Amino acid sequence: MFIVLLRFSKNKDQVGEFLEGHKAWIQRGFDDGVFLLAGTLKPMVGGGLLAHNITAEALQARVNEDPFVAEDVVTAEVIEMSPSRADKRLDFLVD
Questions:
Q1: What confidence score (pLDDT) does residue 83 get?
Q2: Helix (H, G, I), strand (E, B) or coil at 29
């Protein structure tokens, strides 16, 4: 499982130019069964994703395809996590 942090860079003012492509990229992640959760980092410092069913290398390649990342609107940090305990609603995530 992975946590992806997308923090705004100095090019934050270009969000509008690449927003539709970014939204489409997120939707592909959900459609492909990779993304479980997407949201905004408060207070408006970027966004975050919860991802699974993918290797670290494949996820990094996917993240690099995000228009926000490619155009340096955000910087991306991918954190790998091995869940060992979860609420019963999330049991499918625990190895």
A1: 86
A2: helix
